[in-house]
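TEACHING EXERCISE
Course module: macromolecular assemblies
Task: Read the component lines below, then compare them to the predicted structure of the full complex.
Student: A.B.
Group: 4
Components provided:
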Amino acid sequence: MKQQDSGDRYEIRFSGSGGQGLITAAVVFAEAVGVYDGRYVCQTQSYGPEARGGKSKAEVVISDRPIDYPKALELDLLLAMNQAACDAYFYDLKQNGILVVDSTLVEQFPTSRVIAIPFTGIARDEIGKVLVANMVALGAIGLLSGQVDLDNLEKALLARVPRGTEEMNRDALRRGIEEAGKVNLAELPRSVMNEDEE
Amino acid sequence: MPESAQTTARQLLQGNEAVVHGALAAGCRFFAGYPITPASEIAEHLSVLLPAVDGTFIQMEDEIASIGAVIGASLAGVKAMTATSGPGFSLMQENLGFACVAEVPCVIVNVMRGGPSTGLPTSPAQGDVQMARWGTHGDHPVVVLAVSSVLDSFSITVKAFNIAEKYRVPVILLSDEVVAHTREAVQLPPQNEIKVVDRIRPSMPPDWYKPYEGDNRGVPPMAAFGDGYRHHVTGLIHDEHGYPTQNRKEIESFHERMARKISRGFPDIQMTRGFHTRDAEVLVIAYGSVARSALRAVEDARSKGLKAGLLQLITLFPFPRSTVTPLLKQCRAVLVPEMNMGQISREVQRVNQCDCRIVKHNRVDGQFITPMEITRDLLKL
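Instructor-supplied answer key:
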Protein backbone atom coordinates (compact mmCIF):
# COMPACT_ATOMS: atom_id res chain seq x y z
CA MET A 1 0.00 0.00 0.00
CA LYS A 2 1.27 3.41 -0.93
CA GLN A 3 1.83 5.68 2.02
CA GLN A 4 -0.16 8.84 2.35
CA ASP A 5 1.34 11.88 0.72
CA SER A 6 3.56 13.72 3.14
CA GLY A 7 2.58 16.94 1.38
CA ASP A 8 4.24 20.06 2.60
CA ARG A 9 6.76 18.26 4.78
CA TYR A 10 10.47 17.98 4.09
CA GLU A 11 12.04 15.05 5.90
CA ILE A 12 15.70 14.33 6.57
CA ARG A 13 17.27 11.38 8.36
CA PHE A 14 20.82 11.44 9.71
CA SER A 15 21.94 7.84 10.22
CA GLY A 16 25.05 5.93 11.21
CA SER A 17 26.41 4.54 14.43
CA GLY A 18 26.34 5.89 17.97
CA GLY A 19 29.17 8.37 18.65
CA GLN A 20 29.30 9.82 15.13
CA GLY A 21 27.50 12.95 16.29
CA LEU A 22 24.41 12.45 14.17
CA ILE A 23 22.01 13.67 16.83
CA THR A 24 24.12 16.80 17.35
CA ALA A 25 24.07 17.49 13.61
CA ALA A 26 20.29 17.07 13.51
CA VAL A 27 19.81 19.35 16.51
CA VAL A 28 21.91 22.10 14.92
CA PHE A 29 19.97 21.74 11.68
CA ALA A 30 16.64 21.90 13.54
CA GLU A 31 17.74 24.92 15.51
CA ALA A 32 18.79 26.78 12.36
CA VAL A 33 15.49 26.01 10.63
CA GLY A 34 13.19 26.38 13.63
CA VAL A 35 14.71 29.19 15.65
CA TYR A 36 16.72 31.24 13.13
CA ASP A 37 14.66 30.67 9.95
CA GLY A 38 11.41 30.61 11.94
CA ARG A 39 9.76 27.56 10.36
CA TYR A 40 8.00 24.63 12.03
CA VAL A 41 10.38 21.84 12.87
CA CYS A 42 10.40 18.54 14.78
CA GLN A 43 13.64 16.79 15.59
CA THR A 44 13.55 13.23 16.89
CA GLN A 45 16.03 10.44 17.38
CA SER A 46 16.31 6.81 18.20
CA TYR A 47 19.24 4.92 19.52
CA GLY A 48 20.07 1.79 21.45
CA PRO A 49 21.03 1.55 25.11
CA GLU A 50 24.76 1.69 24.28
CA ALA A 51 26.75 4.92 24.68
CA ARG A 52 28.81 4.21 21.57
CA GLY A 53 28.29 1.90 18.64
CA GLY A 54 24.90 0.45 17.86
CA LYS A 55 22.52 2.00 15.40
CA SER A 56 21.81 5.67 15.70
CA LYS A 57 19.48 7.86 13.73
CA ALA A 58 18.10 11.33 14.07
CA GLU A 59 15.38 12.95 12.02
CA VAL A 60 14.31 16.47 11.16
CA VAL A 61 10.85 17.22 9.78
CA ILE A 62 10.36 20.72 8.38
CA SER A 63 7.10 22.38 7.41
CA ASP A 64 5.42 25.73 7.02
CA ARG A 65 2.44 24.40 8.98
CA PRO A 66 2.29 22.93 12.50
CA ILE A 67 3.65 19.39 12.44
CA ASP A 68 1.43 16.60 13.72
CA TYR A 69 3.36 13.34 13.37
CA PRO A 70 6.86 14.29 14.54
CA LYS A 71 8.88 11.55 12.82
CA ALA A 72 9.69 10.95 9.17
CA LEU A 73 7.07 9.29 6.95
CA GLU A 74 8.98 9.21 3.66
CA LEU A 75 12.44 10.67 3.45
CA ASP A 76 13.33 13.51 1.12
CA LEU A 77 16.97 13.15 2.10
CA LEU A 78 18.89 10.36 3.75
CA LEU A 79 22.39 10.78 5.14
CA ALA A 80 24.08 7.43 5.71
CA MET A 81 27.36 7.59 7.60
CA ASN A 82 27.99 3.83 7.49
CA GLN A 83 27.09 0.81 5.39
CA ALA A 84 24.58 -0.65 7.85
CA ALA A 85 22.58 2.57 7.98
CA CYS A 86 22.65 2.88 4.20
CA ASP A 87 21.37 -0.67 3.78
CA ALA A 88 18.71 -0.34 6.47
CA TYR A 89 17.21 2.99 5.54
CA PHE A 90 17.61 3.33 1.78
CA TYR A 91 14.12 1.98 1.24
CA ASP A 92 12.58 4.73 3.38
CA LEU A 93 13.54 7.29 0.73
CA LYS A 94 10.90 8.88 -1.43
CA GLN A 95 11.05 8.19 -5.10
CA ASN A 96 13.65 10.69 -6.32
CA GLY A 97 14.69 11.46 -2.75
CA ILE A 98 18.36 12.23 -2.23
CA LEU A 99 20.77 9.65 -0.82
CA VAL A 100 23.96 11.14 0.62
CA VAL A 101 26.62 8.74 1.84
CA ASP A 102 29.96 9.06 3.57
CA SER A 103 32.08 7.39 0.91
CA THR A 104 34.90 6.86 3.42
CA LEU A 105 32.73 4.33 5.24
CA VAL A 106 30.09 3.25 2.72
CA GLU A 107 31.51 1.09 -0.03
CA GLN A 108 28.46 -0.38 -1.68
CA PHE A 109 25.81 1.96 -2.98
CA PRO A 110 22.29 0.59 -3.35
CA THR A 111 21.63 2.89 -6.32
CA SER A 112 23.43 5.01 -8.86
CA ARG A 113 21.30 7.92 -7.69
CA VAL A 114 23.71 8.71 -4.88
CA ILE A 115 25.81 11.61 -3.71
CA ALA A 116 29.02 10.17 -2.29
CA ILE A 117 31.28 12.50 -0.34
CA PRO A 118 34.13 11.27 1.89
CA PHE A 119 33.00 13.19 5.02
CA THR A 120 35.17 11.22 7.41
CA GLY A 121 38.16 11.43 5.09
CA ILE A 122 37.80 15.20 4.74
CA ALA A 123 37.45 15.61 8.49
CA ARG A 124 40.51 13.46 9.17
CA ASP A 125 42.83 14.66 6.41
CA GLU A 126 41.86 18.30 5.95
CA ILE A 127 40.37 19.48 9.24
CA GLY A 128 42.51 17.20 11.37
CA LYS A 129 39.80 15.55 13.47
CA VAL A 130 37.58 12.61 12.52
CA LEU A 131 35.18 13.90 15.18
CA VAL A 132 33.90 16.70 12.95
CA ALA A 133 32.85 14.43 10.07
CA ASN A 134 29.28 15.10 11.22
CA MET A 135 29.74 18.82 10.65
CA VAL A 136 31.20 18.32 7.18
CA ALA A 137 28.09 16.26 6.45
CA LEU A 138 25.86 18.91 8.02
CA GLY A 139 27.24 21.54 5.68
CA ALA A 140 26.67 19.32 2.66
CA ILE A 141 23.12 18.52 3.70
CA GLY A 142 22.42 22.16 4.43
CA LEU A 143 23.20 22.99 0.84
CA LEU A 144 21.73 19.91 -0.85
CA SER A 145 18.39 20.04 1.00
CA GLY A 146 17.83 23.69 0.14
CA GLN A 147 15.82 23.91 3.37
CA VAL A 148 17.99 26.18 5.47
CA ASP A 149 19.67 29.55 5.27
CA LEU A 150 23.36 28.60 5.31
CA ASP A 151 24.36 31.65 7.37
CA ASN A 152 21.79 30.66 9.97
CA LEU A 153 23.11 27.11 9.91
CA GLU A 154 26.56 28.42 10.78
CA LYS A 155 25.14 30.66 13.52
CA ALA A 156 23.23 27.76 15.04
CA LEU A 157 26.34 25.60 14.89
CA LEU A 158 28.56 28.14 16.59
CA ALA A 159 26.00 28.64 19.35
CA ARG A 160 25.92 24.90 20.12
CA VAL A 161 29.54 23.73 19.99
CA PRO A 162 31.90 23.87 22.99
CA ARG A 163 34.00 27.00 23.34
CA GLY A 164 37.40 26.69 21.68
CA THR A 165 36.15 24.41 18.93
CA GLU A 166 34.24 27.03 16.95
CA GLU A 167 36.86 27.49 14.27
CA MET A 168 37.31 23.79 13.62
CA ASN A 169 33.57 23.23 13.42
CA ARG A 170 33.05 26.20 11.14
CA ASP A 171 35.82 25.03 8.82
CA ALA A 172 34.22 21.59 8.72
CA LEU A 173 30.79 23.02 7.93
CA ARG A 174 32.13 25.29 5.19
CA ARG A 175 34.15 22.47 3.68
CA GLY A 176 30.99 20.36 3.52
CA ILE A 177 29.07 23.16 1.81
CA GLU A 178 31.89 23.60 -0.66
CA GLU A 179 32.07 19.92 -1.48
CA ALA A 180 28.29 19.69 -1.96
CA GLY A 181 28.46 22.72 -4.25
CA LYS A 182 30.31 20.57 -6.78
CA VAL A 183 27.28 18.30 -7.08
CA ASN A 184 24.73 18.98 -9.79
CA LEU A 185 21.44 17.57 -8.49
CA ALA A 186 19.81 17.82 -11.91
CA GLU A 187 22.40 15.47 -13.34
CA LEU A 188 21.71 12.68 -10.87
CA PRO A 189 20.09 9.67 -12.51
CA ARG A 190 16.34 9.52 -11.90
CA SER A 191 15.04 6.80 -9.62
CA VAL A 192 13.89 3.74 -11.54
CA MET A 193 11.55 2.68 -8.77
CA ASN A 194 7.94 3.38 -9.63
CA GLU A 195 4.81 3.39 -7.54
CA ASP A 196 3.57 -0.04 -8.67
CA GLU A 197 6.68 -1.81 -7.50
CA GLU A 198 6.25 -0.88 -3.85
CA MET B 1 12.26 34.44 46.02
CA PRO B 2 13.61 35.39 42.58
CA GLU B 3 11.38 34.66 39.61
CA SER B 4 12.72 32.23 37.08
CA ALA B 5 14.22 34.08 34.18
CA GLN B 6 11.82 32.62 31.64
CA THR B 7 12.81 33.59 28.13
CA THR B 8 10.02 34.29 25.67
CA ALA B 9 12.37 34.17 22.68
CA ARG B 10 11.90 31.43 20.13
CA GLN B 11 13.93 28.40 21.18
CA LEU B 12 14.46 24.76 20.32
CA LEU B 13 13.33 22.68 23.28
CA GLN B 14 12.95 19.01 24.05
CA GLY B 15 9.76 17.80 25.75
CA ASN B 16 11.76 17.12 28.90
CA GLU B 17 13.19 20.64 28.91
CA ALA B 18 9.71 22.09 28.47
CA VAL B 19 8.58 20.16 31.57
CA VAL B 20 11.40 21.87 33.44
CA HIS B 21 10.34 25.33 32.28
CA GLY B 22 6.71 24.54 33.08
CA ALA B 23 7.61 23.44 36.59
CA LEU B 24 9.63 26.58 37.23
CA ALA B 25 6.88 28.80 35.83
CA ALA B 26 4.37 27.06 38.12
CA GLY B 27 6.55 27.88 41.11
CA CYS B 28 8.29 24.55 41.67
CA ARG B 29 11.31 25.19 43.87
CA PHE B 30 12.26 21.66 44.93
CA PHE B 31 13.27 18.60 42.97
CA ALA B 32 14.56 15.31 44.29
CA GLY B 33 15.21 12.50 41.87
CA TYR B 34 17.37 9.76 40.51
CA PRO B 35 18.43 9.76 36.86
CA ILE B 36 16.83 7.30 34.46
CA THR B 37 16.39 7.15 30.69
CA PRO B 38 14.29 8.70 29.17
CA ALA B 39 13.60 11.18 32.01
CA SER B 40 17.15 12.21 32.93
CA GLU B 41 17.14 15.55 31.10
CA ILE B 42 14.51 16.84 33.54
CA ALA B 43 16.85 16.34 36.50
CA GLU B 44 19.84 17.50 34.47
CA HIS B 45 18.30 20.86 33.60
CA LEU B 46 16.72 21.44 37.01
CA SER B 47 20.08 20.82 38.66
CA VAL B 48 21.24 24.01 36.93
CA LEU B 49 18.05 26.07 36.86
CA LEU B 50 16.67 25.44 40.38
CA PRO B 51 19.68 26.81 42.29
CA ALA B 52 19.50 29.89 40.04
CA VAL B 53 16.07 30.73 41.51
CA ASP B 54 17.03 29.82 45.11
CA GLY B 55 15.38 26.44 44.69
CA THR B 56 16.72 23.10 45.87
CA PHE B 57 17.90 20.22 43.73
CA ILE B 58 18.89 16.93 45.33
CA GLN B 59 20.03 13.78 43.61
CA MET B 60 18.83 11.07 45.97
CA GLU B 61 20.08 7.54 46.46
CA ASP B 62 17.02 6.05 44.75
CA GLU B 63 13.43 6.74 43.76
CA ILE B 64 11.95 5.70 47.11
CA ALA B 65 13.96 8.41 48.81
CA SER B 66 13.25 10.85 45.98
CA ILE B 67 9.51 10.89 46.48
CA GLY B 68 10.03 10.88 50.24
CA ALA B 69 12.04 14.09 49.95
CA VAL B 70 9.42 15.58 47.65
CA ILE B 71 6.66 14.86 50.18
CA GLY B 72 8.75 16.42 52.95
CA ALA B 73 9.45 19.53 50.90
CA SER B 74 5.79 19.97 50.06
CA LEU B 75 4.79 19.59 53.73
CA ALA B 76 7.32 22.32 54.46
CA GLY B 77 5.42 24.59 52.07
CA VAL B 78 7.44 24.34 48.85
CA LYS B 79 6.07 23.20 45.50
CA ALA B 80 7.95 20.03 44.69
CA MET B 81 8.31 17.41 42.02
CA THR B 82 10.25 14.37 40.91
CA ALA B 83 10.72 12.76 37.52
CA THR B 84 11.37 9.16 36.62
CA SER B 85 10.48 6.33 34.27
CA GLY B 86 8.74 2.98 34.78
CA PRO B 87 11.25 1.21 37.05
CA GLY B 88 11.56 4.27 39.29
CA PHE B 89 7.83 4.85 39.26
CA SER B 90 7.36 1.28 40.56
CA LEU B 91 9.60 2.11 43.51
CA MET B 92 7.62 5.26 44.26
CA GLN B 93 4.25 3.56 44.69
CA GLU B 94 4.36 3.12 48.47
CA ASN B 95 5.18 6.74 49.20
CA LEU B 96 2.74 7.85 46.51
CA GLY B 97 0.01 6.29 48.65
CA PHE B 98 1.29 8.28 51.62
CA ALA B 99 1.05 11.50 49.58
CA CYS B 100 -2.54 10.59 48.65
CA VAL B 101 -3.69 9.83 52.17
CA ALA B 102 -1.84 12.73 53.78
CA GLU B 103 -3.06 14.98 50.93
CA VAL B 104 0.38 16.26 50.00
CA PRO B 105 0.43 18.24 46.74
CA CYS B 106 3.24 17.11 44.44
CA VAL B 107 3.94 16.35 40.81
CA ILE B 108 5.43 13.06 39.69
CA VAL B 109 6.59 12.92 36.09
CA ASN B 110 6.79 9.47 34.56
CA VAL B 111 8.39 9.46 31.12
CA MET B 112 7.17 6.09 29.94
CA ARG B 113 9.50 3.60 28.29
CA GLY B 114 9.06 -0.03 27.32
CA GLY B 115 8.39 -2.33 30.28
CA PRO B 116 7.92 -4.31 32.44
CA SER B 117 11.04 -4.22 34.63
CA THR B 118 14.06 -2.58 32.99
CA GLY B 119 12.32 -3.38 29.71
CA LEU B 120 13.33 -1.20 26.77
CA PRO B 121 15.07 1.87 28.19
CA THR B 122 15.25 3.87 24.95
CA SER B 123 11.95 2.86 23.37
CA PRO B 124 8.58 4.58 23.67
CA ALA B 125 5.60 2.92 25.34
CA GLN B 126 2.40 3.78 27.18
CA GLY B 127 2.35 0.79 29.49
CA ASP B 128 2.11 2.66 32.79
CA VAL B 129 -1.35 4.15 32.34
CA GLN B 130 -3.32 1.88 34.66
CA MET B 131 -0.39 1.75 37.06
CA ALA B 132 -0.45 5.53 37.33
CA ARG B 133 -4.08 5.29 38.42
CA TRP B 134 -3.96 2.18 40.57
CA GLY B 135 -0.30 1.54 41.32
CA THR B 136 -0.51 2.30 45.00
CA HIS B 137 -2.84 0.21 47.11
CA GLY B 138 -6.25 1.10 48.45
CA ASP B 139 -8.89 3.42 47.06
CA HIS B 140 -7.16 6.71 46.58
CA PRO B 141 -7.62 9.97 44.71
CA VAL B 142 -5.06 10.73 42.09
CA VAL B 143 -4.92 12.74 38.88
CA VAL B 144 -3.15 11.46 35.78
CA LEU B 145 -2.35 13.75 32.84
CA ALA B 146 -0.70 12.94 29.49
CA VAL B 147 1.31 15.29 27.27
CA SER B 148 1.81 15.06 23.51
CA SER B 149 4.08 17.91 22.42
CA VAL B 150 6.75 20.31 23.59
CA LEU B 151 4.26 23.11 24.24
CA ASP B 152 1.98 20.67 26.11
CA SER B 153 4.92 19.60 28.19
CA PHE B 154 5.17 23.21 29.32
CA SER B 155 1.53 24.15 29.80
CA ILE B 156 0.25 20.84 31.17
CA THR B 157 3.09 20.77 33.69
CA VAL B 158 1.88 24.16 34.94
CA LYS B 159 -1.64 22.75 35.09
CA ALA B 160 -0.37 19.67 36.97
CA PHE B 161 1.04 21.86 39.72
CA ASN B 162 -2.14 23.95 39.81
CA ILE B 163 -4.33 20.86 40.25
CA ALA B 164 -1.98 19.42 42.88
CA GLU B 165 -2.11 22.64 44.89
CA LYS B 166 -5.80 23.31 44.45
CA TYR B 167 -6.97 19.82 45.44
CA ARG B 168 -4.07 18.73 47.66
CA VAL B 169 -3.49 15.67 45.53
CA PRO B 170 -0.47 14.06 43.88
CA VAL B 171 -0.61 14.60 40.13
CA ILE B 172 1.10 12.13 37.81
CA LEU B 173 2.25 13.59 34.53
CA LEU B 174 2.75 10.92 31.91
CA SER B 175 5.12 11.69 29.09
CA ASP B 176 6.70 9.14 26.81
CA GLU B 177 10.01 8.69 25.08
CA VAL B 178 8.79 10.32 21.86
CA VAL B 179 7.40 13.45 23.53
CA ALA B 180 10.31 13.66 25.95
CA HIS B 181 13.01 13.62 23.28
CA THR B 182 11.29 15.42 20.41
CA ARG B 183 12.67 18.90 19.92
CA GLU B 184 10.42 21.65 18.57
CA ALA B 185 10.93 25.36 18.06
CA VAL B 186 8.60 27.06 20.52
CA GLN B 187 7.92 30.37 22.15
CA LEU B 188 6.94 30.12 25.80
CA PRO B 189 4.40 32.60 27.21
CA PRO B 190 5.65 35.36 29.51
CA GLN B 191 5.33 34.66 33.23
CA ASN B 192 2.54 37.23 33.73
CA GLU B 193 0.30 35.34 31.28
CA ILE B 194 0.62 32.07 33.16
CA LYS B 195 -2.07 31.20 35.68
CA VAL B 196 -0.45 29.89 38.83
CA VAL B 197 -2.46 28.41 41.72
CA ASP B 198 -1.08 28.18 45.24
CA ARG B 199 -2.41 26.01 48.06
CA ILE B 200 -4.72 27.69 50.55
CA ARG B 201 -3.05 28.20 53.90
CA PRO B 202 -4.98 28.37 57.19
CA SER B 203 -6.08 31.82 58.31
CA MET B 204 -7.62 30.91 61.67
CA PRO B 205 -5.68 31.09 64.94
CA PRO B 206 -3.43 28.02 65.34
CA ASP B 207 -5.51 26.62 68.21
CA TRP B 208 -8.57 26.40 65.99
CA TYR B 209 -6.80 24.69 63.11
CA LYS B 210 -8.09 21.25 62.19
CA PRO B 211 -5.53 20.09 59.61
CA TYR B 212 -7.83 17.59 57.93
CA GLU B 213 -11.16 19.37 57.99
CA GLY B 214 -12.17 20.02 54.40
CA ASP B 215 -13.45 23.37 53.26
CA ASN B 216 -16.63 23.55 51.18
CA ARG B 217 -14.73 21.83 48.35
CA GLY B 218 -13.54 19.09 50.67
CA VAL B 219 -9.96 20.37 50.59
CA PRO B 220 -8.35 21.25 53.95
CA PRO B 221 -6.25 24.43 54.15
CA MET B 222 -2.62 23.39 54.38
CA ALA B 223 -0.21 24.76 56.96
CA ALA B 224 3.47 24.38 56.28
CA PHE B 225 5.74 22.92 58.93
CA GLY B 226 7.18 25.93 60.67
CA ASP B 227 4.12 28.14 60.14
CA GLY B 228 3.18 27.71 63.81
CA TYR B 229 0.25 25.40 63.13
CA ARG B 230 1.24 22.32 65.09
CA HIS B 231 -0.16 19.23 63.42
CA HIS B 232 0.33 15.55 62.88
CA VAL B 233 0.75 13.87 59.49
CA THR B 234 0.29 10.12 59.16
CA GLY B 235 -0.33 7.40 56.61
CA LEU B 236 -2.93 5.88 58.96
CA ILE B 237 -6.54 6.85 58.28
CA HIS B 238 -7.01 9.90 60.44
CA ASP B 239 -9.66 12.20 61.87
CA GLU B 240 -9.96 15.92 61.21
CA HIS B 241 -7.18 16.58 63.69
CA GLY B 242 -4.81 14.33 61.82
CA TYR B 243 -4.69 11.59 64.46
CA PRO B 244 -5.27 7.91 63.65
CA THR B 245 -8.82 6.77 64.01
CA GLN B 246 -10.75 3.49 64.05
CA ASN B 247 -14.12 5.19 64.25
CA ARG B 248 -16.16 3.87 61.36
CA LYS B 249 -17.95 7.16 60.78
CA GLU B 250 -14.69 9.06 60.67
CA ILE B 251 -13.14 6.49 58.37
CA GLU B 252 -16.07 6.62 56.01
CA SER B 253 -16.28 10.41 55.93
CA PHE B 254 -12.52 10.56 55.30
CA HIS B 255 -12.84 8.34 52.23
CA GLU B 256 -15.91 10.17 51.01
CA ARG B 257 -14.21 13.52 51.30
CA MET B 258 -11.15 12.24 49.42
CA ALA B 259 -13.34 11.08 46.54
CA ARG B 260 -15.59 14.15 46.66
CA LYS B 261 -12.82 16.73 46.46
CA ILE B 262 -11.83 15.29 43.10
CA SER B 263 -15.31 14.61 41.70
CA ARG B 264 -16.38 18.18 42.50
CA GLY B 265 -13.44 19.36 40.46
CA PHE B 266 -14.20 17.25 37.35
CA PRO B 267 -14.98 20.24 35.07
CA ASP B 268 -11.67 21.82 36.04
CA ILE B 269 -9.56 18.66 36.10
CA GLN B 270 -10.82 16.75 33.07
CA MET B 271 -9.12 18.13 29.99
CA THR B 272 -9.57 16.91 26.42
CA ARG B 273 -9.09 18.32 22.93
CA GLY B 274 -11.41 17.59 20.04
CA PHE B 275 -10.44 17.70 16.37
CA HIS B 276 -13.20 17.36 13.74
CA THR B 277 -15.47 15.80 16.36
CA ARG B 278 -18.60 17.82 15.52
CA ASP B 279 -19.70 15.77 12.51
CA ALA B 280 -17.59 12.69 13.19
CA GLU B 281 -19.03 9.28 12.42
CA VAL B 282 -15.94 7.39 13.48
CA LEU B 283 -13.65 8.58 16.24
CA VAL B 284 -10.09 8.02 17.38
CA ILE B 285 -9.42 8.38 21.09
CA ALA B 286 -5.71 8.87 21.73
CA TYR B 287 -3.30 10.47 24.19
CA GLY B 288 0.38 11.26 24.52
CA SER B 289 2.58 11.08 21.43
CA VAL B 290 0.10 8.78 19.70
CA ALA B 291 -2.42 11.64 19.54
CA ARG B 292 -0.08 13.27 17.01
CA SER B 293 -0.07 10.20 14.78
CA ALA B 294 -3.84 10.03 15.21
CA LEU B 295 -4.33 13.64 14.14
CA ARG B 296 -2.52 13.02 10.89
CA ALA B 297 -4.46 9.80 10.36
CA VAL B 298 -7.78 11.60 10.90
CA GLU B 299 -6.86 14.32 8.40
CA ASP B 300 -5.86 11.65 5.93
CA ALA B 301 -9.08 9.66 6.44
CA ARG B 302 -11.08 12.88 5.94
CA SER B 303 -9.30 13.49 2.64
CA LYS B 304 -10.45 10.00 1.61
CA GLY B 305 -14.05 10.92 2.42
CA LEU B 306 -14.43 9.33 5.86
CA LYS B 307 -15.97 11.56 8.53
CA ALA B 308 -13.35 10.86 11.16
CA GLY B 309 -12.61 12.80 14.33
CA LEU B 310 -10.06 12.74 17.12
CA LEU B 311 -10.58 13.11 20.83
CA GLN B 312 -7.25 13.69 22.51
CA LEU B 313 -7.29 12.91 26.22
CA ILE B 314 -5.08 15.13 28.32
CA THR B 315 -6.60 13.96 31.59
CA LEU B 316 -6.59 10.17 31.68
CA PHE B 317 -7.84 9.92 35.27
CA PRO B 318 -10.36 10.85 36.52
CA PHE B 319 -11.47 9.46 33.15
CA PRO B 320 -13.28 12.25 31.24
CA ARG B 321 -16.48 10.32 30.89
CA SER B 322 -18.71 13.36 30.38
CA THR B 323 -16.86 14.17 27.16
CA VAL B 324 -16.38 10.61 25.94
CA THR B 325 -19.90 9.25 26.45
CA PRO B 326 -21.75 11.71 24.16
CA LEU B 327 -19.20 10.99 21.41
CA LEU B 328 -19.78 7.26 21.82
CA LYS B 329 -23.47 7.92 21.23
CA GLN B 330 -22.68 10.03 18.17
CA CYS B 331 -20.17 7.73 16.47
CA ARG B 332 -20.70 4.26 15.13
CA ALA B 333 -17.17 3.13 15.96
CA VAL B 334 -14.21 4.25 18.03
CA LEU B 335 -10.59 3.30 17.51
CA VAL B 336 -8.21 3.46 20.46
CA PRO B 337 -4.55 3.27 19.37
CA GLU B 338 -2.10 2.77 22.24
CA MET B 339 1.47 1.66 22.78
CA ASN B 340 0.28 -0.99 25.26
CA MET B 341 -2.10 -3.96 25.23
CA GLY B 342 -5.18 -1.78 25.73
CA GLN B 343 -5.14 0.24 28.94
CA ILE B 344 -7.35 3.19 27.96
CA SER B 345 -9.51 1.19 25.55
CA ARG B 346 -10.83 -0.64 28.61
CA GLU B 347 -11.86 2.71 30.12
CA VAL B 348 -13.61 3.63 26.89
CA GLN B 349 -15.34 0.24 26.94
CA ARG B 350 -16.34 0.84 30.57
CA VAL B 351 -18.18 4.07 29.80
CA ASN B 352 -19.71 2.74 26.58
CA GLN B 353 -23.40 2.38 27.31
CA CYS B 354 -24.60 2.28 23.72
CA ASP B 355 -23.73 -0.02 20.84
CA CYS B 356 -20.73 1.91 19.68
CA ARG B 357 -18.05 -0.47 18.43
CA ILE B 358 -14.78 -0.07 20.33
CA VAL B 359 -11.76 -1.23 18.35
CA LYS B 360 -8.27 -1.53 19.81
CA HIS B 361 -5.03 -0.86 17.99
CA ASN B 362 -2.08 -1.92 20.10
CA ARG B 363 1.62 -1.81 19.54
CA VAL B 364 4.08 -3.29 22.03
CA ASP B 365 7.17 -3.76 19.87
CA GLY B 366 8.99 -0.65 21.09
CA GLN B 367 7.98 1.30 17.99
CA PHE B 368 5.97 4.49 17.74
CA ILE B 369 2.52 4.09 16.16
CA THR B 370 2.48 5.59 12.65
CA PRO B 371 -0.38 7.55 11.06
CA MET B 372 -0.59 4.95 8.27
CA GLU B 373 -1.54 2.09 10.56
CA ILE B 374 -4.24 4.20 12.23
CA THR B 375 -5.62 5.32 8.85
CA ARG B 376 -5.67 1.73 7.67
CA ASP B 377 -7.73 0.69 10.70
CA LEU B 378 -9.99 3.73 10.43
CA LEU B 379 -10.90 2.93 6.84
CA LYS B 380 -11.93 -0.57 7.94
CA LEU B 381 -14.35 0.68 10.61
